[in-house]
Protein 1
Amino acid sequence: MMGATGLSVVIIIAVIVIMLVIIIIGGKDTLSWKFLTTFPQDGMTKGGIFPALYGTTLMVIIMSVAAVPFGAITALYLTEYARESSWIAKTVQFAVRTLSMVPSIIFGLFGLGFFIKFVGGGMDKVFSGGKLIWAQPNILWASLTMALLTLPVVIVSVEESIRAVPRDLRDASLALGATKWQTIRKVVLPGARSGILTGTILAVSRGAGEVAPILFTGAAYYLATLPHSLSDQFMSLGYHIYIMSTQSVNVDQTLPIQFATTLVLLLLTFTLNLVAVLIRSRLRRAH
Amino acid sequence: MKETKIKTRNLSLYYGSKMALNSITMDILQKQVTALIGPSGCGKSTYLRTLNRMNDLIPNVKITGEVLVDDFNIYDKNVDSVNLRKKVGMVFQKSNPFAKSIFENVAYGPRINGVHDRKKLTEIVEVSLQRAAIWDEVKDRLHDSALGLSGGQQQRLCIARTLAVDPEIILMDEPASALDPLSTSKIEELIFSLKENYTIIIVTHNMQQAARVSDYTAFFYLGELIEFGKTKKIFTIPEKKQTEDYITGRFG
């Protein structure tokens, strides 16, 4: 048994190390400040990844604006208002768990059907007399689709941190004549701040790396300009890696760019996860 | 003769189907210290928490009978428990300051009651801290975190925080049980000075403490009020055998 567990550990570590070493060696010479801040050139065989970096950043910001308040309110409801045994609380809990198990490509298809066809189509009919503006992939629909995908991460993380606020402090506030809502606003939420932050970071790190949900809902192969409206398409790091390695005019020539882009995406998500882990461990120690 | 501040009439409390208080009837006098004693699980803390309706927060609690504060039934449908708790303050067993500054801890109650004027707040904070006998120790660091205070100081800060809401009644749930002897004696002196202005009800496990600080003592056992009377009498010539056994340390 000891041998088997030891072997498993060695295999896992070896996979990570080999993966990292290959990516770092392949990408380190291409990675530079210029690579991060310039547009692709010559049919994307040269130049940088600025629009992809910009698009991913913008997408996770819009995604957070949608997912964090919505997730935090849901978590607040589950912890403070719903009785744990009530059917509605159980239903929400079940929905959150199910949502976190849905394959990401399904979110992409849902985004296409719901946001683009249904919501976007409806908006075009009502506001622009059928002119095509919102009923096509764009950064807003992609971000909202990604928000749905990351919602469970936010909910679970905020829920955990709200439950960690001691009963004592709520009692103290209520005994001073505070209402339940005053207690939540002034004692519970400030106490859960770091949990909300952790949830946001984990959601961002998940959203930055996912490709499937934005495949049909907003990611573009190549754009000569940055998106400047919510109805514009955008480039993203994950999707950029995919097209560079499968759709490029010359896959071998772009290999260094692929490695460097992968390295950027890895560093981004690793750093975000590391920060989340640090905040979380500080939170655990505080209680 | 002092006036009666709180009357409980046939007060019973159930957790689900389990009876925790059995038909308690007693009168608590104004500006006196009343001690509630008895072994763990006898219902004394539960009784204390019925007086500011903190038990409302626990699911499946059922209460019958009446609690009258100034002849007004606090379990009447029209009574807002939030307003009641402004009149009936509470100090807990474990000191529970907020993770805020000393000033903000005391200002919390006035603020939620709509006092926002800085000058007025400063005044309330100072008076409250003085009444809780902690002003001299903290006046130079009002804006430091309350969590940096010692256990005894934290408990006196919690008392100051309660006073800042200007209650008439203060409930204390074993306020000194987690403190060292010196801090305990400070709290006891404080209780003694507070009874000039407030009606105080204190739950304690410590017989000597009950004898030292209280004017009246109620002995609870298994959810029933066994004996209630002047502290001097309860501790010298109790009427019931159970009371005598408990205060002399034969059980509990």
Protein 2
Amino acid sequence: MDTLELTVDHPLRSFRLSVAEELGRETLALVGPSGAGKSSVLRAIAGLLRPERGRIALGSHVWLDTEAGIDLAPERRSVGLVFQEYALFPHLDVRRNVAFGGRERVDELLERFRISHLAQARPAGLSGGERQRVALARAVARDPAVLLLDEPLSALDAHTRNVVRGELAELLAELRLPTLLVTHDFDDAAALADRVGVIVDGRILQLGPAAELLAAPADAFVASFTGANLLHGTARPGAGGLTEVVLDGGGSMYSADGGEGRVGLAVYPWEVSLARAESLDSAVNHVRGEVRSVVVLGNRVRVRVGPLTAEITTGSAERLELREGDSVVASFKATASRLVPLG
Amino acid sequence: MRSPFGVALALATALTISFLLLPILAIFLDIPPGRLLDGMNDPAAVDALIVTLKTTLIANLVILLIGTPAAYLIGSRSFRTRSLLVTAIELPLVLPPAVAGIGLLAAFGRNGLLGGTLDVLGLSIPFTQLAVVLAIMFVASPFYLRAAVSAFESVDPALTGAARTLGAGPARTFFRVALPLASGGLGAGWALSFARGIGEFGATIMFAGSLQGVTQTLSLAVYEQFDVDFDVALAIGAELVAVSAFLLLAVKLVPSWTRSNSQSTTLFAPFGSR
């Protein structure tokens, strides 16, 4: 089994991109805000960007070693790169686009990606989802040893995105190639990748399975990026072995995590429950506030209450008859909150 | 009803159009068509046509074969001296033709910079057909180069990058991706350069002279003949009008060909707008 080894050190506009990672037959997602250096990592692997210092090797095959003066041209590296806007050749039809990567399996790939009926069409006439399938077919046509995906879902509208996300997950499972995926959307990363790395200003802040990042975010940025509510405050020992966090915005919250001084208190929306009135349940933390917004997402509803966002089922939201402006109580358990250092 | 201002506008338009078209129409109407055709058969006119076809063909082949790869390099890479290079290309565009002629003589003439070297090789360039070709290339190629550089600049680097990651080397990437995508801009630039070359006068007469059958092109022959035989001058003028009109039409049509060819309106849109 070939492992992709990757060390890249390269100056970008206002920071240094510095990444060292190893990839087996798995999908690794680099997720971070735009301009964090994610795409540069992909370009360096593909050979479109020559890093100042670095080493990139697939098994015993060295693609780049700046110290040894090795820098293989892109066409000599076995990668399939799917560009952010897909970069389909506008002057070639779908069949010729796919055949550009390799002529042998064109028909099979057109079939596999359900684009046979589009073989004669030009890219300009395709929908976003179709373009994405053509781009994938073209990248796979070269029979690459490494797959690189640059924001593969960002060019799609919300509805297509969900469908394509499922298709992409299936494809990745089927190919079992070392795959590096870059996205600014944590949900996409969590759905597609075995491991997720949060990258900011050229550095990976935390790397692990998505569940691990959610369970134990390394710092405030990772917590808020993965979707947590983040409340800033000052921690001090509280009653019952809990940590009391005096919030900057007033009031106190309790966490089972230890901590002292300036901290962020992170709690995920699905850990927050809502009620019309304060009840005697096991939750320690209660916030009474006005419902500021109610957004339905399929079978779930996201409700903003004061500084918190709660995610509850559509059924619960109907039972509570939530409307904007209503006064409700948001609660979460001290054990459901994480204390994280502020970045 | 029409206001006086509307009448004034219409009058100005009519004046403009007729002033611009009158001399062109006059070339065809001044003498009967029979005499015009006779003029075209005059030995001086036939010689000039042959010289023009030959020198223009060679000059344009060289411009395309050497200018295109040069424009690709300048248009697709970013390097420090790039804008300096582009300015250098544009300089001959704004140069008065007489200055171009004297410059060519100073470079390639008997006593010019390269004169000694060329002498050793047994080459004397001034007043030969090679001089005509060089004069055309010097004044016309910047039109092509400038258009070609910007045509290659507007090829999305993601597309050439994609070609590379799909296994195409730099040469295949150029021929299969960059060249077809830039073809619209290249065609338009080439038509302009061709038109400038056909009309070349000042640099040629200084550097190559006006020897019938050797260096006398159509443009030079019009000037020469209008003293000798006005009918022949008119006939050659008519030939040049026909060529120019055809070129103008081609320039206007080229962009729409490429558009219908690619079915893509984003083909030449600037990269940043996507």
